């Protein structure tokens, strides 16, 4: 079974955190950490007292603009003029 959640007022499908994480190629733990750090769009609703829900359009838009982390900058090791390394 593959149930979906539909907003009664708008007819829009809504995604759970697991669905959002899967779409964004993140682990559920990473998604939760992003949520705690306010790095993702705010949920549009909550069901069953604790399951947050998002609009897919909001998540798609966010995912297009997100940065997967800062690039790693590797500095060239300077050679010492004393020992050649």
Structural notes for this entry:
It comes from Corynebacterium kutscheri. This is Transcriptional regulator, AlpA family. With 85 residues, the chain is of the alpha+beta class. The chain has one domain: Multidrug-efflux Transporter Regulator, Chain: A, Domain 2, CATH 1.10.1660.10. The protein is 31% helix and 12% strand. It is built from 3 helices and 4 strands. The chain has helices spanning 17-23, 28-36, 56-65, and strands at residues 5-6, 13-14, 45-47, 51-53. The strands form 2 sheets. Strands 1-2 form a two-stranded antiparallel sheet. Strand 1 (5-6) and strand 2 form a beta hairpin. Helix 1 crosses helix 2 (28-36). The model has no long low-confidence stretch (mean pLDDT 86).
How far the N terminus sits from the C terminus, by CA atoms, comes to 63 Å
**How many domain modules?**
1
- The average pLDDT value, as a whole number, equals 86
CATH topology: Multidrug-efflux Transporter Regulator, Chain: A, Domain 2
CATH class: Mainly Alpha
Largest sheet: 2 strands, antiparallel
> Which overall shape is indicated by the principal axes computed on the Cα atoms?
elongated
Unreliable spans: none
**Structural class label:** alpha+beta
What percentage of the residues does DSSP assign to strands (E)? 5-15%
Q: How are helices and strands ordered from N to C?
A: EEHHEEH
Strand order of the largest sheet: 1-2
Which second-level CATH architecture applies?
Orthogonal Bundle
Organism: Corynebacterium kutscheri
Protein name: Transcriptional regulator, AlpA family
């Amino acid at each position: 079974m593959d149930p979906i959640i539909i907003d009664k007022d708008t007819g829009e499908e809504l995604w759970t955190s697991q669905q959002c994480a899967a779409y964004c190629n993140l682990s559920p733990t990473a998604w939760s950490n992003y949520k705690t750090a306010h790095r993702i769009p705010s949920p549009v609703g909550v069901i069953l007292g604790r399951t947050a829900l998002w609009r897919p359009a909001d998540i798609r838009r966010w995912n297009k603009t997100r940065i997967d982390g800062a690039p790693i900058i590797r500095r060239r090791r300077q050679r010492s003029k004393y020992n050649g390394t």
